[in-house]
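Convert to structure. Protein one:
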Amino acid sequence: MNPTSSPLSDATPSQVLGACPHDCPDTCSMLTTVAGGIAIKVQGNPAHPHTDGALCTKVSRYTERTYHPERLLHPLKRVGPKGAGQFERVSWDDALQDIAAKLGAIASRGPDAAQAILPYSYAGTMGLIQGDGMSARFFHKLGASLLERTICAAAGGEGLTQTLGGKVGMRVEFFAEAKLILIWGSNSIASNLHFWRYAQVAKRNGAKLVCIDPRRSETADKCHEHIALLPGTDGALALALMHELITNDWLDHDYLAQHTLGWDLLRSRALQWSPERAALVCGISVEQIRSLARDYGACVASREPAAIRMNYGLQRVHGGGNAVRLIASLPALIGAWRHRAGGVLLSSSGMFPVNKAALQRPDLLAGKTPRTINMSTIGDDLLRPASAEFGPAIEALIVYNSNPVAVAPESAKVVQGFARDDLFTVVLEHFQTDTADYADYLLPATTQLEHWDVHSSYGHTDALLNRPAITPLGEAKPNTQIFRELAQHMGYTEPCFADDDPALCRMAYGDAVDFDELLDKGFATLKLAQAPFAQGNFPTPSGQCEFFSDRLAAQGLDGLPDHVANHEAFNSSATYPLAMISPPARNFLNSSFVNVKSLRDIEGEPLLEMHATDAAARGLHSGEVVRVFNQRGVYRCKVAISQRARPGVVNGLGVWWRKLGLDGTNVNQVTSQNLTDLGHGPTFYDCLVQVGKDAP
């Protein structure tokens, strides 16, 4: 069967080219088989080299999600108390007319009054069009508060930008040629499956794989070595590696001299971090540090490529931005960037020439400068009264592509804020999530099989196009169409609100990507150098790898990266003596897919992984219900005594919907709204708890 641009309405099976929309580095190219207007199968596109015909377990069940019996198919209006999830069906026109009237009434109070309205969205879809295209135009025209979208990657992104100049790095396909791969803060088998395929090729060709992660993940099981450091100590480990590279002269002096800035300063700081000092901080052995440094430094003499694959787990702590800066600096010390299979990759998203101004139209602000609210502190911000410092209290919230009641930190406060009777809340969704239960209006959105979109990636360097494979179910509408119609009800007449989705898809890359190639193949590979920083040319102000950042120094911050201790530093004698991380359950993606029964059946139920030593000290046994608690709240779940947890650290697997938990809570009941050192990001993995027997 040849992929086609549109579904067939007869029973002859056809295949439609699309793209996976979910928050994963792989951004797979998909084929949807359609017969009689019904999607009967999704599969990976074998013609796309990165996808290679394979989808993850989650997305391979996408038809189950699209045709889920609990799918929202009609606009709904709340009729019960907030949080009770009681709604009645209404027409689109009535819903949009009432929403527009309420937003208009707020905005009409004065020139800055619309700042009491806040959009809240993130990566429920990673598409450039359904993600933040028409919606951004709408909120810019309205003059609503801006949202600082920090909840996943802000600290790491800022760390990369201050060091390498942007979210850039080596190309993922060349990991297959590396001789040493450090998988740092990533459970690649679960969250970056197609990178893992390249790593396996390298492994078969003799490469050594080292996993650096507090949790003994499925990826750690398959690597040659696992270094189970304490959460938030990655920067200390990176500094100790530098110490060993320096003292043993495992350095590429020419690369350091020609293509880096601030080496003498970084050298002095690294020499303060002996393996002995770092081992105490990281909770690992001195020999593990020395052995890893030997392996990494040996690549200088052998002229073999060493590659680092970071992921975002390591930056969800107080010092996350600095930790990424330090790790991103390592390749320059040994000249790893000289090889196309050497360097580091955290995100490739900065390599994509997205025309955000054309898509989002910031000119519609017309000189207004609305305040910016951090999505990671939504719990506090929804409870803030009006003040000169904060501005107007938040009176209206429009949520799309996100489930903040489940995913935002310190969720007791988030729930309290969403439960305000004077808060007008609109939610665009596929299902009645935890957040949807608090909506005044619940609007049915299309899934990826039902709309146009265009995608970049943060794990490879191909642009992708998604075509609708089926007509929208029920009365569901694309996000773009919902905001178009809402703009009409608000009386906005600018021509940009009439741009249709194919036009927006063409706008996204302009002439930088051949749109005809996207239409023909479903993907187009960016034209990039194989070893982009072999001769320096970093996209920093200096063109060099910046160990010292003048931009940070100008902000009054330390221009040189350093280990920054956690807000809640591990102390076995403290009131809350266990460090807790909350990595995603393997078969969920943030809070997406939690309601897909086949995937939830695999996961079973919310679990806390605990090392046998910590469990024995508390008289706990696998399968028992336990209380996980701290000063912010209590989370009840079952405990699993497991070698996946190291001593002193528990793993609260997430992110389950709260309504599926034992007490209507999830792991974010105990996480905090503290922020990272750079990028104003959340600190989900910077969290101390105690665990005890459940009350009888």
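Protein two, convert as well:
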Amino acid sequence: MRISLRRMALSLPFFMFACSTRTQDQSQSQSQSQQSSGCGGGAWSSDVRGAPTKDPNATPPRPDGPAPTGQSWKPVASDEGCGRSGVRWVLVDEVCEDGAGISSTSSLYAPMFRDGAVIGDHLFAVDASHLWSLDLATAGEVHRSALLTGVGQPLAVDRWNQELVLAAGQGGLVLVDPSNPLAPTRSRSLSLPSPAFDLHVQGDDAYVALGAGGVAQVDLAPAAPMLVAHSPMPGFAAGLTTRGKYAFVAGCSTFRVLDLETGAVVSEAWVPNAIQNDRLVAPAKKVTLVGDVAFVAAGHYGAVAIDVSDPLKPQVLGNCTVPGDPAFYASGVRADAGTLYVAGGEWGVLRVDVSSPKMACNRLVAPPPENEPGCSTKPPWEVVPWNVLWDPPPPGKDPVQTLPVNGRLYAFGDARRVGVRAVDVRDTQPDPVTKQLPLLARYDEPRALLGIAASATRVVAIGKAGGAFVPQDGGLVRQSTDPALGGATGLTMLGDGRWATLDASAVHVEGSAKVYPVANATAIVAGVGSEVAVATQSTLHLLDVTTGIPRLFPLAQQAHLPVSLGSDASGIYYAAPEWATSERLAAGVSTAIAAHGAFDATTILDTSLWRTRLPRRYLLGSSAGPVEIAGVGAQVRLVVHEAGGSLRSAALPALTYVGAASDGANVYAVAIDRSLYKSYLVSVRLGAPGSDPVVVATESFTGAASGVAVAGGRVYVADADGFIRIYDVGAGGAATPSRVVPVGGAQ
């Protein structure tokens, strides 16, 4: 039934048992793909295949890696035989799941661009959290002009006149004035009966796919947008487009035609056997029209072509897909100038000639079901791709939607598997030799600053916007720039006030032309006197930067994740994040200090914890004794090791920490939520001997924290966007915002 208000108000669709098998981006090295076999046995026995857990009543742990682009993991009950029941994880579509659609849009928060629109020389992209204004004016380059928050959960975007119209999830319909791309503003909005997943603007009306809520019609002409009609419909409206009096709706388990005048579903059609073994194998997600053919993005089925020349009798013509390639998963479709561009996830963009749309995809090809992979019995570090998730992320290349405009194709990238939002800009004319679309430009999340250190007189940052800065008038003035700072992955301040950096192969010291080779190092910290400590996965190097003479010490145990370093007057502290204890190297002897208690040697083998959050470790010196931040999964603790071996500890917010610093009496830790592009600064007062540390403040900001330093009563936070954020330290240890200093700009 259509509810009219105008007069009143003038999936892996083919399910697989998930263990350690992952589909890799075609651009990544195939050596990263890992598979292992064998289920159960000894300490690894579990009712959850391939996912051991100590608590049989706990929520079943997730598989080893992120789901492939456009999909998500879902637990389902299974019969394990011999009267035993268990849980297996299957791949389902991220929006459609088994066909009924998702019940909450919270799962769609992820560090990925989902859609965009071009106005003038700016691309406005949405990532389910923010609106990004990207400057396209310079050939071969894309720069960020602005980042607008407070626009709900934008999942799709269209244009109305010179305004942007956002389908903003739980935020309803949000309009944005982009006339000043340096500072776009939220102009108007309208709450809707259900979350907004997709929209299409026709004339002065926006038609919105409301998931389980059907379709809404919104009049955009009034100063306050007005809900004209709400048409509930069976199933789930994931995407739609309109023409004349009809809406063509991608309904997850089917394709429907809605009469906009009556609000009635007048017809439907879809591929046969779309649901197999209770799993949706052909999810209808997005739709676009080319002539009288609707092309529907449908996961592994690619683009399904439906003849809608008679909207009352739609007919499936066939589909265009890449059969047999599990990397191909269609989440978005758009067309321009006789070419259809299918966003195929980790496979890339599939181009289809639709100059004769009814002939383009005229044969139905059902992709083959996937084989069940084996289950892992290996320790977490052998099945978790920590090198992909931990290291600075490579560019994302997994499009979930495309936008062809004026001879350019914009491919909006997935990032859950590689950590960054990305947009490719390509020429729509293929290269005559390679047949590929030439890459014209690319935008990735900024990584202008990668770390920071400070002394009483200077602040030093590394990254492409890095340099040495002098505190002045409450801010910072750039003192110098050095190539070693731009290419560094690690940074420390020496006792004499100079900085020392670490890159992939060497240590560089300020003012010295000498380079100290150290291959595959993961951390650097100032030691006693003129020594610098550098760690690899197996060795601790103590390097005297005056003489250039190194001393080498084997680590107390094998490190699988990047080693962390800390120091105080008593020696060097080191640990890999997965270790239950840290080590202190003093007078050439390595000794274990008391276990931190955040996890033990058995708990760390629980892969369910790793799937929630990878282990992290930070080691610091303080006036109260050595401090470490340790955690895995949802638990993170700050531990103070007092003289005599006693411990004081405090629980920290369950976040992904990226740095920590101490002024002796307090600890300042920074963390990031990549999905929301939001960062946090947590202030912890260490307190008097015998008392537990206390979290005294938590500040947040939009951006990507990449390091923290404290000196002279101020806390300095490196923001990868190209800012140094300055906080004042109060009498109780809490850091309060003071000033934000741009040092390189968000690119």
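The longest helix spans residues 607-612. The chain is about 5% helix and 45% strand.
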